[in-house]
């Protein structure tokens, strides 16, 4: 059957377009035409792995090494030595334990807030390392002697001409280096890239009607 045509002189009506061709408003980050999924699961997995490795290693060290005991490995390239650190990573700021505890709490809160817009796997790895490392040392500061929020962090890895550190410190350093590399490449937390001061995939189409 031929569809009925409107009476002569009557204005034609068209249905609403399926897509907005004007390009008004910001476009969400897309990958192959699809909105990028959030990568919170990757962040949580990496943070949990870093935290678990740090806690287990410290438990083993405290149980097997007393203060002053050393275990030399790889011809002296690596030494296992238990020390207690009241400062930040690599024994920086010794004596300011409470201040570094507050800073660690702030870092954790900042990472959790940033995770709401996390759609990049590399940034999920980066933030996961930072979060796991911060939580690892924070557990020591909260639970270990000499007191609540004043606990000394267990350090046990010693390299030649380098301060004693632990796996949490390593995770924080690796996450920090990765953050610098990602920022230098223009990769954003939401998965977009910055090119000439603009975010790829989020600019309005030029010349749109």
From TrEMBL:
Q: InterPro entries, alphabetically? A: Peptidase_A8
- Give EC number(s), comma-separated: 3.4.23.36
Please give the Gene Ontology molecular function terms for this protein.
Answer: aspartic-type endopeptidase activity
Indicate how the chain sits in the lipid bilayer. Multi-pass membrane protein
Indicate the enzyme's highest-level EC class: hydrolase
Catalysed conversion reaction: Release of signal peptides from bacterial membrane prolipoproteins. Hydrolyzes -Xaa-Yaa-Zaa-|-(S,diacylglyceryl)Cys-, in which Xaa is hydrophobic (preferably Leu), and Yaa (Ala or Ser) and Zaa (Gly or Ala) have small, neutral side chains
Name the residues that span the membrane. 42-66, 86-111, 123-143, 163-184
Source species of the chain: Actinomadura gamaensis
Source taxon at top rank: Bacteria
Q: What is its main location?
A: membrane
Pathway note: Protein modification; lipoprotein biosynthesis (signal peptide cleavage)
- Gene from which this protein is expressed: lspA
Q: Where found, per UniProt? A: Cell membrane
| Active site: residue positions | 155, 169
Q: What is this protein called?
A: Lipoprotein signal peptidase
Q: What is the lineage of its organism?
A: Bacteria, Bacillati, Actinomycetota, Actinomycetes, Streptosporangiales
* Family according to the record: Belongs to the peptidase A8 family.
Region (Disordered) residue ranges read 1-35
Q: Which UniProt keywords apply?
A: Aspartyl protease, Cell membrane, Hydrolase, Membrane, Protease, Transmembrane, Transmembrane helix
Pfam families membership: Peptidase_A8 (PF01252)
Q: What does this protein do?
A: This protein specifically catalyzes the removal of signal peptides from prolipoproteins.
């Amino acid at each position: 059957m031929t569809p009925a045509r409107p009476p002569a002189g009557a204005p034609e009506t068209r249905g609403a377009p399926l897509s907005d061709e004007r390009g008004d408003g910001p476009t969400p980050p897309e990958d192959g035409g699809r909105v990028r999924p959030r990568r919170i699961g990757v962040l949580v997995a990496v943070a949990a792995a870093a935290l678990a490795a740090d806690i287990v290693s410290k438990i083993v060290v405290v149980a097997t090494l007393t203060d002053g005991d050393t275990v030399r490995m790889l011809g002296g390239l690596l030494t296992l030595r238990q020390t207690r650190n009241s400062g930040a990573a690599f024994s920086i700021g010794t004596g300011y334990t409470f201040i570094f505890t507050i800073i660690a709490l702030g870092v954790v809160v900042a990472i959790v807030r940033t995770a709401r817009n996390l759609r990049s796997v590399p940034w999920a790895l980066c933030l996961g390392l930072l979060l796991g490392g911060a939580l690892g040392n924070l557990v020591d500061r909260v639970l270990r002697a000499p007191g609540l929020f004043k606990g000394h962090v267990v350090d046990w890895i010693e390299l030649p001409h380098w301060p004693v550190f632990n796996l949490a410190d390593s995770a924080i350093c690796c996450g920090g280096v990765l953050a610098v590399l990602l920022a230098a490449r223009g990769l954003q937390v939401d998965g977009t890239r910055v090119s000439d001061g603009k975010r790829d995939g989020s600019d309005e189409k030029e010349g749109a009607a």
